[in-house]
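>> Question from a student workshop board

For tomorrow's exercise we were told to take the sequence and the ligand below, predict the bound structure, and bring the output to class. My setup keeps failing. Could a helper post the expected result so I can at least see what it should look like? The ligand is pyridoxal-5'-phosphate.
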Amino acid sequence: MSGREFIPLSIPSIDEETISEVCKVLRSGWLTTGAITERFEQDLADYLGASCVMTTTSGTAGIHLAIVAVGIEPESEIITTPFTFVATANAIVHAGCVPVFADIDPNTLNISPKAIEEKITHKTKAIIPVHYAGVPADIDDVYKIAQTYNLRVIEDCAHAFGASYKNKRIGSFGDVQVFSFHPIKNITTGEGGCVVLRNEQEQDLFARMRFHGINRSIWDRFKKQSGRLDYDVVCPGYKFNMSDIQSAIGIHQLKKVDEMNNRRRALVARYSSAFENWNKIFIPDKALYEYTRSGHLFPVIVNLEKIKLSRDEIIIALKKRNIGSIAYYYPLHIFTYYREKFGYAVNDFPEAENAGAKVLCLPLYPDMTDDQQDFVIDAFRAILEE
Ligand SMILES: Cc1ncc(COP(=O)(O)O)c(C=O)c1O
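>> Workshop helper replied:
Here is what the output should look like for this input. Compare the format with yours to find the bug.
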């Protein structure tokens, strides 16, 4: 075991200003959705270049509610990638729909537009691409397919806060975008998420469904000046609203996000140049279109033919050297629930399975020092060269 402090896969950057702002909310007498959340939503809209952004308790809740708000009926098929966190597919199931997987492009590990087209049936109503690791999916091609077949696109942007595609910020264009503010993400609120919707009716439905189907926000009903106490329940909604405590964290995270993402991108560039032309790994960032990554994760595909260890043995060896790493992701179609409920089987999505067996994410977070990264680079090289 090395004498060095553990270098985790990720750690959020929370400064003293954020902590004191959270304390202010705690002392204010209003903890749940209120003025601070309204401000966070406005700040998010300004940053993303969107007219309306609505916060939620999580990215998962955001995807679920976005599916409902855009009017996709239960039992509809929604095409997504099997190479994502299970939240993406679970949200489809929670909305009563059927997750239909389409294989990935091995160059980016993002959903393959060609594979999407092969999965379209008369029941298909939407596509949920995931911008894996913060490298945008092939957005133009996904939207072209959506237009041809009259499908909605709900982008799972959990990894992509601050990323852009062809010089346009993710969240500023397209149909629907959903972000996550889980602590591993580019900005965090502890737990939380947000959704960008562009149609006013869908925004109204989303706002109502986010809070029990009540037609007036709790903040509107209690705020001192304009509060009206009466309300109606127009549908059986959920309880997916963000608290002002979380929003206070988010407001400060947002102020620092460009700085944090620049550091993430610099670390990605350092990893990439350290591992350039090294035949023991492949770095899956070979998109053919122009993009700016968010720098959410640094995944590599290990070349098992040229290494004595399995991917999991590499993770254990890194851990022994006090380095955290993770296999993101195990393809969803292999999990028991998805096999048993939807009839998926091993070999259904060879590219996702190949990536699932070989992928490994190395530590990456804004406060990581060059020295810590050099330690990871040297350890990783030594383990794979053994
Ligand atoms: C790709 C992807 N989609 C969705 C989610 C769900 O986000 P949350 O954890 O905020 O519910 C995550 C979070 O880990 C994710 O990585």
